[in-house]
Amino acid sequence: MSNTSVQAAPGIRRAGVIQAVLLLAGSCMPVLGSVLLTPILPQLSAEFADVAGAEVLVPLVVAIPALMIALFAPFAGQVVDRLGRKKLLIAAMFVY
Prior knowledge:
Helix content: over 70%
Radius of gyration: 20 Å
Largest sheet: none
Structural class: mainly alpha
Number of domains: 1
Number of helices: 4
Distance between the termini: 47 Å
């Protein structure tokens, strides 16, 4: 059996390892934010125990980033279409 690989047509660029790392890092960053906040929730609850509604508000710290992603994704898509995907992805990852 021969190993036949798909060859790209001349003039067409193929994604490499750097592009894969950038995409994986970009998809992991929102999850990492929530994962890093979860262990300190008990400490946050203790710190804000005297604040009204803290038992509801403190756990929202984990959910708010995902909510913001869901709400602003359509607008982000419009910005990406206007500015370009690559430049915006790299700039956003450095800002994050």
